[in-house]
Design goal:
The protein is of the alpha/beta class and 202 residues long. The chain is 36% helix and 16% strand.
C-alpha cells in the first residue's frame, strides 16, 4: 500500500482503537517506516488498554497526523458493580484535556484537532490491568466518578441504544454536550494562542 500512498500523496493514520496500546501502534508504524504512515491519536481510546493519555501522547508525538479529542469517566455499570468507561462532554470528564492538547500542539505541526463528540458512548476495559502501564483505577484519568445519568434511570450499558421515557432529555443533553464541547475547545484555543504570543514576546 505504501507505493499507492506515495503515488497519490495520501497520508494513512492508524488509530489506537481501545485494544491497542500506543507502544503497539508505534511498533507497527515504525516497522512500516514511511512518511506517509502515522498515527491518529484518540485521547480516550487509551483508557480501555489501561494507558494514560499523556503517556500515549509522548510515545507517538513524532508521528501524529490527527487527534480525536474526547473526554470520559470511569463509573460503575449499575448491574454488578463492574466498571465501564463512558464518554462525557469535553472538559467534564477525567481527562486533562488542556495538558494533553498543549503537549500535542507543542510537539507536532498540527494546527487543528477533531472533536469527537461521542457522549454518552460506553465501553469496557479491553485488556488486563497493567497492559498500558496503569495497574489500577482511582487516580487521574482512571478516577471513578458518578455516571452522567442517574443510574436508577439509565444504566451506562444502555446509553448507546437508549429508547426509554427520558429519550427527549437524553437527546437534549447530547446536543448540549456538542455546544459545551465546542465552547471548551474555543476557550482552549484562545488561551493557547495567548500563551504562545506571550512566549514569543519574551
Amino acid at each position: 500500500i505504501i507505493p499507492l500512498l506515495e503515488k497519490y500523496r495520501i497520508r494513512l493514520a492508524i488509530e489506537n482503537h481501545c485494544v491497542e496500546t500506543m507502544s503497539e501502534i508505534m511498533e507497527l508504524v515504525n516497522k512500516l517506516d514511511s512518511p506517509w504512515i502515522g498515527v491518529l491519536f484518540d485521547i480516550c481510546n487509551t483508557l480501555p488498554a489501561w494507558e494514560d493519555p499523556m503517556d500515549a501522547a509522548e510515545k507517538c508525538a513524532g508521528k501524529i497526523f490527527a487527534v480525536h479529542v474526547r473526554d470520559e469517566v470511569i463509573c460503575t455499570n449499575g448491574v454488578d458493580n463492574g466498571l465501564v468507561i463512558t464518554s462525557t462532554p469535553i472538559g467534564k470528564g477525567n481527562i486533562d484535556i488542556k495538558s494533553v492538547c498543549n503537549y500535542v500542539l507543542d510537539h507536532t505541526t498540527l494546527d487543528r484537532m477533531i472533536l469527537e463528540i461521542s457522549f454518552p458512548f460506553t465501553t469496557t476495559f479491553q485488556r488486563v490491568p497493567g497492559t498500558g502501564g496503569v495497574t489500577d483505577v482511582g487516580q487521574g484519568a482512571f478516577e471513578i466518578k458518578s455516571p452522567p445519568f442517574a443510574i436508577d434511570k439509565i444504566k451506562p450499558n444502555d446509553y448507546y441504544l437508549y429508547e426509554g421515557e427520558l429519550l427527549d432529555d437524553f437527546i437534549e443533553r447530547q446536543l448540549e454536550s456538542v455546544r459545551s464541547g465546542l465552547q471548551y475547545m474555543k476557550n482552549f484555543r484562545e488561551e493557547y494562542m495567548k500563551n504562545k504570543s506571550r512566549l514569543a514576546a519574551l
